[in-house]
Specification:
By secondary structure, the protein is of the alpha/beta class. It is built from 13 helices and 17 strands.
């Protein structure tokens, strides 16, 4: 089969790999019909996520047709499914608490020691991400093996729903929804969202559905801010204003009730702390560029809530721990418990209350995936979301 393969920093290629097969009874094999490049794939592309190896198949947002099943799978051949990026057994301590992204059984024993020294506990399994998360081949390919297929995939029975309307149930739509949920939004709240990328826009859309009175989106790409405005959000361009001062002015000197950092470990901007973080990250010192998060913590009102869906992998300097404590802020974060949200969000899509297709800017055959990565990385104003179509 053909698959998008990591060869090194900013070097991905479409190579030929052996077709996947059934390994465990609960496995299923999916023929991919649509897959997307995620913002967190760019962290891999940039080489800032540890544990990635040359030859790894990338991709954690995908869907397709079931073509083979193990005896323990509940799927049937021919079914159309969207697959969560989190791999979860469904029966461990964490899965039983609906904390699917903390699954204790999906990361193979031989991989668990990679993340445990860094985080204190081993991470769970994720598709196409890092050997810290199991080293599972991803879905930017013609076929993929799906472990625990009786727990993760959601079957799309409505043939009127095109792939592009449901594809993002695999990651960024539930991630945006959980980000808004972690912000504990109350009716009448003002919510500020850093980052008008896919997760930030879906978090903003979710916050509005959860009855936030005002949603303010912060970015520096004009077209992405236009997309946010199209969702009914107010916008701030951080190249043009002092964000904290602007938010204070917009909220009567109080600050937003909740803030959402949808930027993560590769923040942009020319603040001194961020420039130092860029330098340290460039030389491989394992430093996260957390400038957006630091700004969000300082901007949030006293007693407010902080939600962090943005991906972080290591350490960061000059973290405003004092502001966090002295202002009494509450934090919610984590990889998304995708399986907890897919059924509810599929229902909202079917009811026409959520549209995800506005985000898609480019559709490419799998063979052009390297161009998709390059442009999604370097032309973020125009390239807002790339969907790959294997077999076209």
């Amino acid at each position: 089969m053909r698959a998008l393969t990591y060869h090194g920093k900013k070097d991905v290629r479409v190579d030929t790999h052996p077709d996947p097969g059934i390994v465990n009874p609960r496995d299923a094999i999916i023929k991919i019909t649509a897959t997307a490049i995620c913002g967190s794939d760019l962290h891999l592309y940039d080489g800032v996520i540890p544990g990635l190896m040359s030859g790894d198949i990338l991709g954690h947002e995908f869907m397709g047709e079931v073509v083979e099943t193990g005896p323990g799978s509940t799927l049937r051949k021919g079914q159309r499914v969207v697959v969560p990026f989190t791999i979860s057994c469904g029966s461990c301590f964490f899965c039983e608490k609906q904390q699917f992204s903390a699954c204790d059984n999906s990361n193979p024993v031989e991989k668990r020691d990679i993340s445990e020294p860094l985080y204190g506990q081993p991470m769970s399994g994720l598709f196409g991400y890092s050997h810290m998360t199991g080293g599972y081949p991803g879905g930017q390919a013609e076929y993929v093996r799906v472990p625990f297929s009786d727990v993760g995939p959601i079957v799309i029975e409505n043939d009127d729903l095109e792939d592009e309307k449901v594809l993002f149930l695999s990651d960024i739509l539930p991630t945006g929804w959980m980000a808004a949920e972690n912000a504990e939004i109350e009716g009448g709240d003002t919510v500020a969202v850093w980052g008008a990328g896919p997760v930030g826009l879906f978090a903003a859309q979710s916050a509005r559905i959860m009855n936030a009175a005002r949603v303010i989106v912060i970015d520096h790409h004009p077209h992405r801010l236009e997309l946010a405005a199209g969702l009914g959000c107010e916008t701030l361009n951080f190249r043009e204003v002092d964000v904290r001062e602007a938010l204070l002015e917009m909220t009567g000197g109080i600050g937003p009730d909740a803030v959402i950092d949808a930027v993560g470990m590769e923040a942009h901007g020319f603040a001194i702390d961020n420039m130092l973080d860029v330098a340290k990250q460039t030389v491989g010192m394992g430093a996260d560029r957390a400038s957006a998060l630091k700004q969000a913590l300082l901007a949030c009102r006293k007693g407010g809530r902080v939600s962090i869906p943005g991906v972080y992998g290591g350490m960061t300097d000059k973290f405003p721990l004092g502001a966090l404590m002295e202002k009494g802020l509450k934090i919610g974060t984590g990889q998304t418990h995708v399986q907890r949200y897919t059924k509810k969000l599929l229902g909202l899509i079917e009811e026409g209350k959520i549209d995800t297709t506005f985000l898609i800017s480019h559709r490419l055959p799998l063979e052009q995936a390297p161009d998709g990565y390059f442009n999604f990385k370097n032309y973020q104003n125009e390239w807002t979301k790339v969907v790959l179509k294997p077999g076209t």
